User: What shape does this take?
Amino acid sequence: MKIAIAQINTTIGDFDGNADKIVDAWRRADEAGAALVVLPELALCGYPPRDLLAKPAFLRQNQAALE
Assistant: This one.
């Protein structure tokens, strides 16, 4: 099994931009024949979100980006 490690520079709260980076990394890994892509912790919302995780709007944006 070929595994790709995606080292991407995410931005806290930039769900659309981070999602674009994730999809781009996934496509490159797929083209390289990887069966699994490992992403950084909290890649979609950016790291470290700190107190943003306590804000309902931030959590809603995160859920919407996942969908």
Residues 3-66 form one domain. The mean pLDDT is 95. Helices lie at 15-31, 56-66.
